[in-house]
Amino acid sequence: MKRYSMFAVAREAMRFHRGWERAWRSPEPEKRYKVIVVGAGGHGLATAYYLGKVHGITDVAVIEKGWLGGGNTGRNTTIIRSNYLQDPSAAIYEKARALYEDLSQDLNYNVMFSPRGLLMLGQTEHEVRGYKRTVHANRLQGIDTEWIGPQQVKDLVPIINIDGPRYPVLGALLQKRGGTARHDAVAWGYARACSDMGMDIIQKCEVTGVRTEGGKVQGISTSKGEIDCEQLAIVVAGHSSVMAEMAGFRLPIESVALQAWVSEPIKPCMDVVVMANTVHGYMSQSDKGEMVIGGGTDGFNNYTQRGSWHHVEETTRALVETFPIISRLKMLRQWGGIVDMTGDRSPILSKTPVEGIFVNCGWGTGGFKAIPGSGYGMAELIARGHSPLTDQFGLDRFKEGRFIDESVAAGVAH
Amino acid sequence: MLTLTCPCCGVIAEETEFAPGGEAHLKRFGPGSSDDEFEGYLFARKNPKGVHFERWRHAYGCGKWFLAARDTNTLEVFATYKAQTTEPPADVIAKIKAKRPDWEGYK
Ligand SMILES: Cc1cc2nc3c(=O)[nH]c(=O)nc-3n(C[C@H](O)[C@H](O)[C@H](O)COP(=O)(O)OP(=O)(O)OC[C@H]3O[C@@H](n4cnc5c(N)ncnc54)[C@H](O)[C@@H]3O)c2cc1C
Ligand SMILES: [Zn+2]
Fold it and tell me: Which top-rank group of organisms is this from (chain B) (predicted)?
């Protein structure tokens, strides 16, 4: 693999850009791999990457039914933060945020990580108390967050209306090193690095069955034929229940639609991410100038990648009240993804009832931020049998009633 | 936007008038059941891509719970029916079979 650098750009500029090579190979599948990862979203690709980089396992295939990064990874609003309440969450989300800091250097691929700062507005007394509690928890966990007052919010976000009639801004939870990154680049960067280590990324290849024998995984059936493996990692977000059914078990997951939309591009007007969970909306400005907006999920099971109109209306209404200047903006695009929701709003990184099969799912509305940490922990779980990052996120927590409850701390999607 | 018919009061309305309530026909396990049964009842869900039986409440209407058979892959509603049943009635099954001959049936 040729490395990307300033010199490479200069060299290629001199020869009409004819020397760039493809970022990853597109091979046909082999008969057998040590590890197969299903799903070339961020989590699947990161799992493969750290299997190779940290554990030296490169006999790996990543199987994707569509194109890589075409699932939720390419549909999300790219918010990165680690200000969660519970210790296991803080550990894995902060590991991810920390890896994001120099991911571009690590992958030799610009993922445009932008730790521009992130505010979660407190708009009711209840929310204020909740976030102050999070700040205290974060302090104990070694995560840098703070509580700021309404005037400081106004200083950071001049376009905000802090004395809205219904939900005035009473303050905010600020994580200064939270922010955004380029979602496609995260998938592409990992894919390029995996391919470079000799792993096969096989796109347009749908997994249609899982073969097991005596409670142990043997391989998978795909639209490109049968492939054997020793270990299988199911990392398919909204389709986790469908894959689990193929393997013969059920998951505590419901798949629902989550939408996002962007405005026409305008001049820079907001250089932080703002989340307003009480009124159900959040907004940031992309580097192109578009206002990137998201809200809550639909309530019913859905695999169509189309959400309900009234959620768009509800969120836009709330944000117009919070940021009056956006009332005249035209919306350019709207889309949806199918997110995998668990009851405690925490992910599942776990062994399964079938020996050799692992799942990484349940990231729901908030897994983009977790991609590097999740891949790091998942790779360790597959290679070593357990990982301090994932131990608490096992499937057994449901039977044991040992939830990692993040539904209070994060009432809205992001 | 889904349109549902409430089988209790007969009103046809958009989804904003209803509240979704998750998978229908769950078999309840209580004290005396095994840990696995209790876990399955509380947490494990079919969450199928295709025919789904689910609970809804006519929240901004008559207030009653009812059930619906719906395709999660197309959002097509096959039928809505009253909640006083432990499995989908035969006429609902027949309606689904007519439209989805490959459907493996209620499990
Ligand atoms: C609108 C929206 C906004 C969001 N905003 C944020 C945010 O601001 N911050 C944040 O942290 N998170 C956000 N999220 C959540 C985040 O996008 C996801 O948690 C994360 O991208 C999940 O990554 P993944 O790799 O697990 O899944 P995906 O990227 O969905 O990848 C799974 C892949 O599996 C493939 N697959 C499925 N079935 C099969 C099969 N049978 N055979 C082969 N391949 C298969 C799919 O095609 C897909 O490419 C948002 C999500 C949405 C939808
Ligand atoms: Zn009614």
Answer: Bacteria
CA distance A172 to A178: 14
Q: What is the pLDDT of residue A410?
A: 47
pLDDT digits (tens, 9 = 90+) for A256-288: 999 999 999 999 999 999 999 888 899 999 999
Residues A188 and A336 occupy one common structural domain: no
What is the torsion angle, in degrees rounded to the nearest 10, for the CA atoms of residue A388, residue A393, residue A394 and residue A399? 130
Does the C-beta of A337 come closer than 6 Å to ligand 1? yes
The answer to whether A355 contacts chain B (CB < 8 Å) is no
CB contact under 8 Å between B45 and A299, yes or no, is: no
* Chain A CA closest to residue B17: A310
Classify residue A43 by its DSSP letter. H
Q: Which three-class secondary structure state does DSSP give residue A161?
A: coil
- Give the structural domain span for A268: 118-177+255-342
Distance, CA A68 to ligand 1 centroid (Å)?
10
Count other Cβ atoms within 10 Å, centred on residue A266.
14
Number of domains forming the structure of chain A:
2
Structure ipTM: 0.96
In a domain, B106, yes or no: no
Q: Is the CB of A340 under 6 A from ligand 1?
A: no
Q: What is the pLDDT of residue B68?
A: 98
Q: For the domain that residue B88 is a member of, what is the CATH number?
A: 3.30.2270.10
Q: Which of A206, A234, A301 to substitute to test the interface with B, most B CBs within 10 Å?
A: A301
CATH code (residue A171):
3.30.9.10
CATH number at residue A404: 3.50.50.60
Asked whether the beta carbons of residue A251 and residue B39 sit closer than 8 angstroms, the reply is: no
Q: Do B47 and A310 touch (CB under 8 A)?
A: no
Of B2, B39, B45, the CB nearest to A253: B45
The answer as to whether B105 is a domain residue is no
Q: A54-57 — which CB contacts under 8 Å span 24+ positions? A: A54/A376, A54/A379, A54/A380, A54/A383, A55/A379, A55/A380, A55/A383, A55/A384, A57/A382, A57/A383
Residue numbers in chain A where pLDDT is lower than 70: 408-414
- Host domain of residue B90: 3-26+35-99
Q: Is A300 on the interface with B (CB under 8 A)?
A: yes
pLDDT on residue B1:
79
Q: Is residue B70 part of a domain?
A: yes
- Amino acid present at B18: F
